[in-house]
Amino acid sequence: MRTTGLPVAGVNTALDIEDAGQLAEWLRAKGWLGAHEALVAEVLAGGVSNRTVLVRRAAGPAWVLKQALPKLRVPTDWFSSPTRVHREALGLRWLPQLAPPDSTPRFVFEDPDEHLLAMEAVPQPHANWKTLLLAGEVAPDLFAQCGQLLGTLHRAAWQRRAELAEVFAERAFFESLRLAPYYAYAAEHVPPAAAFLRALIDRTRACALTLVHGDYSPKNLLVYRSRLILLDHEVIHWGDPAFDLGFALTHFLSKAHHLPGRRAALTDASRAWWRAYNQTLGALPWRADLEGRAVAHTLGCLLARVAGRSPLEYLTPAERGRQQAVVTRLLDTPPATIPDLITAFTACIESTD
Ligand SMILES: Nc1ncnc2c1ncn2[C@@H]1O[C@H](COP(=O)(O)OP(=O)(O)O)[C@@H](O)[C@H]1O
Ligand SMILES: [Mg+2]
């Protein structure tokens, strides 16, 4: 992909890719853009931990550049090493071999000095799945696809565990961006849930079964030509696949909580998602123990997303309080299965509506 062999001297470690002039100069200096090739750059909104810029070029498909920020754009001070962008690049390199065809953007390049990567842009028109869901658009087929995509990934990576377990062994970002701010923080702030969450952290750390995306949420899934495309692989690691299940189901159930008029549609679709995941996963030696851990991660994430360091912004204070109360109650006798959990969560929410 590199078109010229220009020297790499004078690397500007303070590059800000949101500055179109700086970006064009840097891309030309690095040889990613021809000396006279035109570029149109557009800053993409939405990310809190990265600068994200759409780059349209005269020749070839548009790119999205992502540059990791050392300080996240959140109200409280939250720092994370920008080297995490290289975890995402690793994910982008491998996922095409593990996920269904065309379900991740094509990787273009990464730069170790500026902590950025480039991938091909998903063409317009596309929509963010979270936006569609919050607008009440619940398409059962997308839920089934979401289950299939995850089941394909978990299965395919496990089949290649001999080579991949080591490639994805690094878990530091999963620790600092998930276990600490979600489970450990919630454990400190919700004493009745502390023992449950601490045990969940220990079990998660001890589990190393297959590739875990770690940020498997509707916000990171774009809908393009009725197909889901998965983004944002910063916390990808070798670990407990039940984390992805609990993380995703938390988003579905929290939306079911927030949107009473779409609650039945969202819970039905969540059941379809779970069925599709299981059908795709097929028979695996660790399958029997997966569901109990998925229930635990769902309860943990449902709580963490109202009482952790990164609360779901669309839930009102009253909804956050109710979700915390409902989950704390469910922790006493956790449901045995995912369908039971879906039923119990919505029944409890409705009994306190
Ligand atoms: N390859 C891509 N094609 C089109 N849009 C993208 C692409 N990658 C990211 N985006 C847009 O940028 C937003 C933020 O990207 P994401 O990778 O989720 O970063 P963050 O880690 O900041 O959440 C996405 O929600 C999407 O709208
Ligand atoms: Mg994202």
Biggest β-sheet: strands ordered side by side in the sheet = 1-2-3-5-4
Annotated CATH architecture of the largest domain: Alpha-Beta Complex
Continuous helix count: 12
What's the CATH topology label of the largest domain?
Aminoglycoside 3'-phosphotransferase, Chain: A, domain 2
Using the CA coordinates, give the radius of gyration: 21 Å
Range of helix content? 40-55%
Mind summarizing the main beta sheet?
5 strands, antiparallel
Q: Compute the number of structural domains.
A: 2
Number of strands: 10
Bound molecules: adenosine-5'-diphosphate, magnesium ion
Order of helices and strands: HEEEHEEEHHHHHEEEEHHHHH
Helices, strands, pairings?
Blueprint (H helix, E strand, L loop, with lengths): L19 H11 L8 E5 L6 E8 L5 E6 L15 H15 L8 E5 L4 E5 L5 E3 H6 L5 H20 L1 H7 L4 H18 L4 H13 L3 E3 L8 E4 L2 E4 L6 E3 L1 H18 L4 H19 L5 H21 L9 H16 L5 H14 L2
Antiparallel strand pairs: 1-2, 2-3, 3-5, 4-5, 6-8, 7-10, 8-9
Helix pairs in contact: 4-9, 6-7, 6-10, 8-9, 8-10, 9-12, 10-11, 11-12
The site of magnesium ion has 4 residues, from loops.
How would you sum up this structure in a few lines?
The protein has helices at residues 20-30, 84-98, 129-134, 140-159, 161-167, 172-189, 194-206, 241-258, 263-281, 287-307, 317-332, 338-351; strands at 39-43, 50-57, 63-68, 107-111, 116-120, 126-128, 210-212, 221-224, 227-230, 237-239.
Features:
353 residues; alpha+beta; Phosphorylase Kinase, domain 1; Aminoglycoside 3'-phosphotransferase, Chain: A, domain 2; 2 domains; three-stranded antiparallel sheet; 12 helices; 10 strands; 13% strand; globular; binds adenosine-5'-diphosphate; binds magnesium ion
